[in-house]
Request: fold
Amino acid sequence: MSDLASLEKRALTGLNACPDEAGLRDWHTQYFGKQGEVLLAIKKVGEVPPAERRTYGQEANRIKELLTTAYDSALARQKEKALNQDLESAALDVTLPGRPVRRGRLHVATQDMRRITSIFADMGFQVYRSREIEDDLTNFELLNMPPHHPARDMWDTFHTTTPGVLLRTHTSPGQIHVMRQRCPKPIRVILPGMCYRYEAITTRSEIMFQQIEGLAVGDNVSMTDLKGTIIAFARRLFGKDRQVRIRSSYFPFTEPSIEVDMDCIVCSGKGCGLCKGTGWLEIMGAGMVLPIVLKNGGYDPDRFSGFAFGMGIQRISMLMYGIDDIRYFWANDLRFLEQF
Ligand SMILES: [Zn+2]
Reply:
């Protein structure tokens, strides 16, 4: 029994004296290894006189338990100490490069919309936002397209389940909204926004696209003003030497109606792939607001006149950057979007 008492004392003293984890492991081998002192002491129970055997066995087991617990906690303490030392000695290296943060950006359509908007803002045009869900009356009828008017075929329309309610096919219904709100004051606004058409999706047409439309109403607003505005716009956006050509066209809500071409930004009129050899690029439709439309907006067509123009933002972007497929714009492909 006195051997056991001295073993306990020796083992605990030795454990407390261990300087590090390696020391602890050595200690463990010394007492708990195959030839460890604790195991040998337990084996000795057979040599003890039978009368003391029970007491000896209990004491030996108590010491084994005690030393095992003491060793486990000493090892845990030692590991924590080593970790803290490690953290303290390995100070933060401020010279390491930071982890890159993926930076977002504005969509190319938004960038170009803002660019175009600011050009017209410099010419005194305000931005007028109008709803994307329209009624048949404003999208068609008040723009001189009564039901069954053949011109409606120009716009394949998404109708909602509510009769007479549709997704606007162009930004032109905004003309009616702004005229009714501002009448009889003069108007100079642009109407930007998304439009929707029930069309087959191809490289040249999408079911959703952005338009920007302009409207000027006032005294003596003339075709000359329209032409000057368009030329100023084309030169600001595409370069100061741009030439503009006007062709007659047809829209139900303007008379006369025109189609505006600009000399090709690639070949300057000589003919190339972009302009399909013609030397010209179509950039917008325009015209003088029809008297009936002015009247529907609340203006007296005998006193007031106005011009309107409209263009597709995606079409303009495609010209500017040489994009050959309109489907890229809403496909959410980062390889495309990251180029702008
Ligand atoms: Zn060309």
